[in-house]
Amino acid sequence: MNNFEGKHKGLYLLARVWKAVIKREDDYIQKALSLEVNPDLIEIKHNGTADYGKIVYVIKENTGSDGFCATLRFILCFLIFAGQHGFVPKIKLTKEFAYYDAEKSKEIPNPWEYYFVPQEENYDEGNALHVCYASYVHRDAVRNAYALNAYRAEDYHDERTIQICAPLIRKYLALKPELIHDANALLEKSRGAGKHILGVHFRGTDYKQGYNKHPVYVDEKQIIAEIQKAVDTGDFSTIFLASDDAAIGERIREAFRDIELLQHPDVYRSDGEQSVAFSESDRKYHHYLLGYEIARDMFTLSLCDGLVAGKSSVVFMSHLYKRSREEDYAYMRIIDNGNHVNGKEYWEQ
Fold it and tell me: Strands, E, within the chain: which ranges?
């Protein structure tokens, strides 16, 4: 490195790029342009001297617009990418995570560890010899190769994806014991009585707005009709309902008076059309609790014997968690009304 380059790195880089453009150095220009779109171009940083012989792959959530279970799907993509390239993953979310809670982070600095058991391998991103940061181009490369799209009904049944995700869930997405305990506790009495439990997920709030590429809303009438079909099999005497909608519980109680209905009672729900994920409240640890409630609902659904739901990341992940335990639903109905095709983007609201 010459003296000018060392003192004026920004100017040197600008001059180097300008020279490449003038001289039509196509290979150099193409490589520069490809960094953000080509997953095979891996940028390695040198942050220190630790973890010799390893490439630490740091997975950070870098958008605040992804819901809890959508984030889990994306992290699975990054974990698959890390495995394909022989990297050692380090999941370390940031303030950009939608469920980051300033108060909770005084106790637990890494928002990932609010809900998940910390990794056994404690790689030091700040002092590792070789560090690579997860990029959405890595996620998209994996998502295009594997069936990890919660908005395609056929992806719920892709055995190759289930088999590659199962060990990753067991190793990296192990939920904390208190969350698992709460999920089991709700179902314990019904299970002890030998009852079969039908898990139902009803996505209200922002799904009613019809965002681009998101599933077409499954309304109350449709979900009740599908629950009726499941109940008519004679296999279910209890319903567990997971929902962000404040009114759907009472509607289901009215429709199925002879069926026991279970819900976690402390879930923050809404009767509006804004996602509760981005809601504000004066309750202590509100954003942390939003994530806890979604994670608990998702896991509770995975403990049920049957499942009726529309397409969503919550349902997709509950199915993956169930299959990661080498279990399967005795009855499974994923309602597919298609997806919206319009210019209405949820992050613009």
Answer: 56-59, 88-91, 131-133, 197-202, 238-243, 260-262, 306-310, 331-335
